[in-house]
Amino acid sequence: MMSVVIVLFAVLNTYRTEELSDNIFKDDKLKNSDGSCGCSSIKRNTEENFESTKIFDTSSKNIVAEKYSSAANIQSVYPRTNKMVFIKGGKFNMGTDEPVFIADGEGPSREVTLSDYHLDSYEVSNAEFELFVNATGYTTEAESFGDSFVFESLLSEQTKSGITQAVAAAPWWLPVKGCNWKHPEGPDSNITERMDHPVVHISWNDAVAYCKWAGKRLPTEAEWEYACRGGLKDRLFPWGNKLNPMDKHWYVLKLNIIATFFISQKYSIHTCINKKEFIFRANIWQGEFPETNTGEDGYIGTAPVTEFPTNAFSLHNMVGNVWEWTADWWNIKHTRTPTVNPTGPQSGKDRVKKGGSYLCHKSYCYRYRCAARSQNTPDSSAGNLGFRCAATLLPEYLKEHTYDKN
Ligand SMILES: *[C@@H]1O[C@H](CO)[C@@H](O)[C@H](O)[C@H]1NC(C)=O
Ligand SMILES: *[C@@H]1O[C@H](CO)[C@@H](O)[C@H](O)[C@H]1NC(C)=O
Ligand SMILES: [Ca+2]
Ligand SMILES: [Ca+2]
């Protein structure tokens, strides 16, 4: 009896190793030296330097959440996904001494101390953004400019046939007329079936306006990265170093399989092992980029903001799904000098975005790591770029809704 159990364990473990040996990422060598996904080449043609905008003051506790709370605390016809989690401040190592993309300013690793803050548990969804638009009549920049960038293979043939220009550095990104958050793949697309997906085609300026309305603000890059790391030190991903580790559920499952096996003798182990939800931790790209996205994790495009397991801080989709804007100006030069509540450079041209998206693949744009970063001008938007908000003090209207204290 005992030996049967041991053999079964061995079989299961072999299966597990094969399943997890990064076989979806056969190409371990980066295809091009900067690993560019073209994510930062898709920007509007703006030459001027932007003035430093002080959108919030971390030194002051005087955040005007109350002013907006009545507006943000309205009924939605969809389940709300605006809850925030409390994040206890502390010291952490920001950036990395083993940068994958040196030109992105991922290094060096430096000590950062943060005060307590709150962060949205989810990326801002279409439903939440629609509440904001309904309440304020806000027009996004993609709507004003009349276009936004979409990944080619997501477009219908009809939409594609009307496009004459492409981005030289990233030909798979196409500027699509009439494309905006309500029409993510152009005029012939809509979001009716995707109200719980992250809102996309949102510029940095749009994100700031939304967060302000909700009594929140954008997180600083340091706050975003601290939250991404979820208390782990020098790890690649929000859950550790392996792309798809089996979590605790797996061991519980494995014991269940064995128990059930001996009870029924008929149990289908194979079906159970193949359950993807025990394997995938983030919505990224599987297959050859940019030709084939197999969507093994369940999603070719965006996934609902509630999908995939949380990290230790109860945050969903910190890496993958959509890129997230942060408050900071972009700069690639960092020193090792320890800092307290850093807010980035005083001025700049681009804003920092973090976390990578459903288009990220290890061989190309290996940026679904906590230390990875990229940039865009504040008026740029794309089909894989969204955001979540932070708050120094929890807005009054969210107090009764908040849980997951950590
Ligand atoms: C926004 O307003 C429209 C029109 O009244 C309504 O159909 C829609 O459900 C509202 N959105 C939300 C999220 O409540
Ligand atoms: C929205 O798109 C779906 C396909 O995703 C389509 O079936 C539906 O008719 C569209 N709705 C509207 C109002 O255009
Ligand atoms: Ca995917
Ligand atoms: Ca994300």
Strand and helix map with partners:
Elements: H1 2-20, H2 65-72, E1 84-87, E2 90-94, E3 110-114, E4 117-120, H3 126-136, H4 141-145, E5 147-151, H5 157-161, E6 173-177, H6 204-213, H7 221-229, H8 248-264, H9 269-273, E7 323-329, E8 339-340, E9 351-354, E10 374-376, E11 385-386, E12 390-391
Describe the structure.
- It is built from 9 helices and 12 strands.
- The protein has helices at residues 2-20, 65-72, 126-136, 141-145, 157-161, 204-213, 221-229, 248-264, 269-273; strands at residues 84-87, 90-94, 110-114, 117-120, 147-151, 173-177, 323-329, 339-340, 351-354, 374-376, 385-386, 390-391.
- The longest helix has 19 residues, at 2-20.
- Mean pLDDT is 82; it is low at 1-34, 46-67, 267-277 and 402-406.
- InterPro entries: CTDL_fold, Sulfatase_Mod_Factor_Kinase, SUMF_dom, SUMF_sf.
Key structural traits:
three-stranded antiparallel beta sheet; binds calcium ion; 9 helices; binds 2-acetamido-2-deoxy-beta-D-glucopyranose; disordered C terminus; single chain; 22% helix; four-stranded mixed beta sheet; alpha+beta; 12 strands; 406 residues
How many β strands by DSSP?
A: 12
Uncertain residue segments? 1-34, 46-67, 267-277, 402-406
The best one-word shape is globular
Class from secondary-structure proportions: alpha+beta
Largest sheet: 4 strands, mixed
Give the termini distance in whole angstroms: 44 Å
Count of discrete alpha- or pi-helical segments spanning 4 or more residues: 9
Mean pLDDT: 82
